[in-house]
Automatic annotation (TrEMBL), chain A:
Organism field: Flavobacterium rakeshii
Domain of life: Bacteria
Higher taxonomy: Bacteria, Pseudomonadati, Bacteroidota, Flavobacteriia, Flavobacteriales
SUPFAM superfamilies hit by this protein: Adenine nucleotide alpha hydrolases-like (SSF52402)
Protein name (record): UspA domain-containing protein
Length: 238, 457
C-alpha cells in the first residue's frame, strides 16, 4: 500500500492511526495524508479568502502533529503530508482521492464522532466510495493485525474466497472465522465476542455496498466489540 | 377451501373480468363504427339534396334526383328537408320535423349536427351556402340494419363469453392440477417421514423452481432435525467416544513424563502438550454441547475458516499420538495454485473429529496397513479421498453404516469399537454441506470420498 488518507480533526487517536498507517505501507515512496477539513468562508475577495482560510492549531494539536511527523520520519520510506481542504463534495473527494492515489482510508473514533455537518458529509461520502476503509477501534495505541473475523451480510453476497483474495493483495492477516449476519448484528454479538476472545481475533472485516445506512451499521459493531473494522467495497472484488 | 379450488375460481374470475372488458370494448367500438358509417351516408345524401335544391336547370336537378334514387342504396324511412336560414337565429320551420330546439341551436352554431331517437331514427343536419343565402339541409333515416347487427354482435359476445368461462373453468382446473400436483406429491412424501425414519429424504429434482427449492429446504430441515435428534439422543455416547482420544493422549503423556525424573524443560514440554490436549478437550466438549443444545443451525454460528490441508495435518498429528506406527500418507500433490480454494468455513474441532474418525477407521480396520489420504480442490469443491486396504464392508452392511451402534459382523468379531464414529462423522460432514460417499469391497478395502461444495449459490 502506498498512499493512506486519514481525515482528522487532530485528536489524541491520530497518533495510533498514523502508527497503524506506517505499519501497512510498503515500497519506498509512500505518503500518509492527514486531511483537515474546514468550511469555505463567505468572502468578497481572494485575499480575504486566503486570510480567512489560514489554518490554526492549538498547541496540543501542534504537539500531536509533531509526534506524528516523528513517527513517520523514523520509517524512512514514508512522508507525512498535511492537506487542508476547504469544503467537501462528492466530485471533489473523488478527484482528491484520484490525485493522491489513495489505497486506504483510515477513520479514527474521534473523527467518526464529529458532529459538524462538514465532517459527517465527508464521512458519508467516504462510506459511499469504493476505497477500503479501516475504522479504528477503542484502543489508542498502535494496532497489529493477525487474525480476522469476516462479517458476512446477506445483501452483499460475497464469498470468503473473494474477500481473502482481496485482503491478501494488501494486508498480511488471515481470516480465521466467519459470522453470517442474517438480520441484525445484535443477536450475533455474544457469539462473535466469544469467538474473538477464543481465537484472538484482532480485526473485523466486512464487505459493504454503496448504501446510505452502512455507516450506522458498522458503528454498532465497533461500539459493541471495540475492534477495528476493515470495510472493503464489494464491487472492487471481482 | 382447497388451494386447487381457489386457483380455479381465481382463474375463472380473472379471465371472466378480462373477457368482459374485451367484450364491452368490442361492443362500443362496433357501435361507434356503425354510427360513423351511417352518418357518413346521411352526409352524402345531405350534399346531394343541397345540390338538387340549388340547381336551376331542371335537367341537372333530375339527374341528381336519379343519382340519389338509383345510385345510392335506399334507406328506411328516408326523408329530406331544406330549411332556409333567415338570420343568425331564425330559419324557416317545418312542422313535420319533431326535433329539440338544442339540436337546431347546435346546427346553427357548428354548421352540422346529428341526433338519434329511441327508434334508431337518425337526423343529420348541415348548413349549406348558395349565392349568399344559407340553407339548413336535414336528412333523416332509420338505421335498422345497424341495430340488427348490434343485437347480433351482442349475442355473439354473450354466448362467446359464456363459452369462454366454461373453457376457463376447465383450463383453471388443469392449471391448478398442474401446480398443485408437485405439492401433493411432496405432502405424500412428507407423510412417509416420521421420527422413526428421519433419515428418509424427499427426492430432489433437477429443476430450479420454487418447488425444488421447497424440497431442498425441507431436506435441509430434515438434515438438521435428524442431526440434532440423534445427537441429542446419543450425546453421552458421542461424548464418551470422542473424548476418549484426547484423554488417552493426556494419560500417555503423563505416564511418559512420570516414568523417571526429568529436566525442567522436559516437564514444561510435557505440560504444554497436556495443556494443548486439555484445551482441545475443552473445545470439543463445548462444540458437542453446542451441537446438542441447538442442533446445528449453521446460520447462527460463528464459523472458523480453516485451510483443509492444515486440518488434515492436525488430524495426522493426533493419529500419530494414538497409533505411533500408523502408515497414513497424506498426498497433497494435487493442491490448486490458488490456496484460497482450500479454505472452508467450518466448525474446526468437529470437522477434525469427523475426518479423524474416518482415517482412524481406515487404520483400525486394515490392521495398520497403509492408508492414503488425497486432497484435491477446485473452484467448486474440496474433495478428500481416504483409501485403505483393510477388511472392507460387506454389501449387506452398507445401508446400516450410519446407524449409531451398528457394527458389521466381521468388524465386531475382530475389533473393539462402538459403532459411533462413522454416524457422527457423517452428520458433521453433512451439516458442513458436504457429502460422504463410501465404496467398499469385502476383503479388499474401502474408499471414502468426502466432498464439500464451496461454490457460492
Amino acid at each position: 500500500m502506498k498512499n493512506i488518507l486519514i481525515p482528522t480533526t487532530v485528536e489524541n487517536d491520530i497518533l495510533a492511526a498514523v502508527k497503524t498507517a506506517v505499519k501497512y505501507t510498503t515500497g519506498t515512496n509512500c505518503s500518509i495524508v492527514l486531511m483537515m477539513l474546514q468550511k469555505i468562508p463567505n468572502t468578497y475577495s481572494a485575499s480575504q479568502f486566503l486570510r480567512e482560510t489560514t489554518p490554526s492549531c492549538t498547541p496540543a494539536q501542534n504537539s500531536l502533529l509533531n509526534q506524528c511527523r516523528e513517527v513517520v520520519t523514523q520509517t524512512g520510506n514514508c512522508r507525512l503530508l498535511i492537506h487542508h481542504q476547504c469544503g467537501m463534495s462528492a466530485p471533489l473527494l473523488k478527484n482528491l482521492m484520484d490525485h493522491l492515489g489513495t489505497d486506504l482510508v483510515i477513520l479514527t473514533r474521534s473523527y467518526k464522532e464529529e458532529k459538524n455537518n462538514l465532517h459527517t458529509t465527508c464521512r458519508q461520502l467516504l462510506l459511499n466510495s469504493k476505497y477500503p476503509i479501516l475504522h479504528l477501534g477503542d484502543e489508542s495505541e498502535e494496532y497489529n493485525f493477525n487474525k480476522a473475523l469476516y462479517l458476512e451480510y446477506p445483501k452483499v453476497d460475497l464469498g470468503i474466497h473473494e474477500v481473502q483474495k482481496l485482503i491478501n493483495e494488501q494486508f498480511s492477516f488471515k481470516i480465521v472465522s466467519q459470522a453470517k449476519i442474517e438480520e441484525s448484528i445484535d443477536e450475533m454479538v455474544p457469539h462473535i465476542a466469544e469467538t474473538i476472545s477464543k481465537n484472538n481475533i484482532d480485526i473485523l472485516i466486512e464487505a459493504r455496498r454503496t448504501a446510505k445506512k452502512s455507516g450506522r451499521k458498522e458503528q454498532s459493531v465497533n461500539h459493541n466489540l471495540g475492534l477495528p473494522l476493515l470495510s472493503v467495497h464489494a464491487e472492487t472484488v471481482t | 377451501m382447497q388451494i386447487k379450488k381457489k386457483i380455479t375460481i381465481t382463474y375463472i374470475v380473472l379471465s371472466g373480468v378480462s373477457t368482459l372488458a374485451l367484450c364491452l370494448l368490442v361492443f362500443f367500438l362496433f357501435k361507434q363504427n356503425n354510427q360513423y358509417y351511417f352518418l357518413k351516408r346521411l352526409q352524402d345524401r345531405a350534399k346531394i339534396v343541397a345540390s338538387i335544391h340549388y340547381q336551376h336547370d331542371p335537367i341537372k336537378a333530375e339527374y341528381y334526383q336519379n343519382l340519389k334514387k338509383n345510385g345510392l342504396e335506399e334507406l328506411i324511412n328516408e326523408d329530406d328537408f331544406v330549411l332556409r336560414v333567415n338570420g343568425e337565429d331564425t330559419f324557416e320551420y317545418n312542422t313535420n320535423l319533431d326535433l329539440p330546439s338544442e339540436f337546431y341551436a347546435d346546427v346553427m352554431k357548428n354548421g352540422s349536427s346529428w341526433t338519434v331517437n329511441s327508434e334508431h331514427q337518425y337526423h343529420y343536419a348541415q348548413i349549406f351556402k348558395e349565392s349568399g343565402q344559407r340553407y339548413m339541409v336535414i336528412v333523416t333515416a332509420r338505421d335498422r340494419r345497424g341495430n340488427t347487427s348490434l343485437i347480433y354482435i351482442s349475442r355473439i359476445l354473450i354466448f362467446g363469453g359464456l363459452a369462454f368461462i366454461i373453457i376457463a373453468y376447465f383450463f383453471g382446473r388443469f392449471l391448478a392440477t398442474r401446480f398443485i400436483n408437485p405439492v401433493s406429491r411432496i405432502t405424500k412424501e412428507v407423510k412417509r417421514i416420521s421420527a422413526s425414519n428421519l433419515h428418509n429424504r424427499l427426492p430432489e429434482t433437477e429443476e430450479s423452481d420454487e418447488l425444488a427449492d421447497l424440497t431442498r429446504t425441507f431436506n435441509d430441515m430434515l438434515d438438521r432435525l435428524e442431526t440434532s435428534f440423534e445427537i441429542q439422543a446419543n450425546f453421552i455416547n458421542n461424548a464418551s467416544h470422542e473424548l476418549k482420544t484426547p484423554i488417552t493422549t493426556i494419560i500417555a503423556e503423563t505416564e511418559i513424563a512420570l516414568l523417571k525424573e526429568r529436566e525442567t524443560g522436559e516437564y514444561v514440554t510435557s505440560l504444554e502438550n497436556i495443556n494443548k490436549q486439555a484445551s482441545r478437550l475443552g473445545n470439543l466438549t463445548e462444540s458437542l454441547l453446542k451441537l446438542t443444545q441447538t442442533g446445528y443451525d449453521g446460520k447462527k454460528q460463528v464459523q472458523d475458516i480453516a485451510r483443509i490441508d492444515e486440518v488434515l495435518m492436525d488430524v495426522k498429528c493426533d493419529i500419530n499420538k494414538i497409533y505411533p506406527n500408523n502408515r497414513v500418507t497424506i498426498n497433497l500433490s494435487n493442491l490448486p495454485e490458488d490456496d484460497s480454494f482450500l479454505m472452508l468455513p467450518c466448525n474446526r474441532p468437529l470437522l477434525e473429529l469427523a475426518i479423524g474418525n474416518i482415517i482412524t477407521n481406515g487404520v483400525k480396520y486394515s490392521d495398520n496397513e497403509e492408508v492414503f489420504v488425497t486432497l484435491s480442490a477446485n473452484k467448486e469443491n474440496i474433495k478428500i479421498s481416504i483409501t485403505d486396504i483393510g477388511i472392507g464392508i460387506p454389501p449387506e452392511d452398507i445401508p446400516y453404516l450410519y446407524e449409531p451402534f451398528f457394527r458389521g459382523k466381521k468388524a465386531a468379531s475382530k475389533y473393539v469399537g462402538y459403532g459411533l464414529g462413522l454416524p457422527l462423522a457423517m452428520k458433521i460432514i453433512r451439516m458442513h454441506g458436504g457429502e460422504l460417499l463410501i465404496q467398499s469391497e469385502s476383503g479388499k478395502g474401502t474408499v471414502v470420498n468426502i466432498v464439500f461444495t464451496t461454490a457460492q449459490h
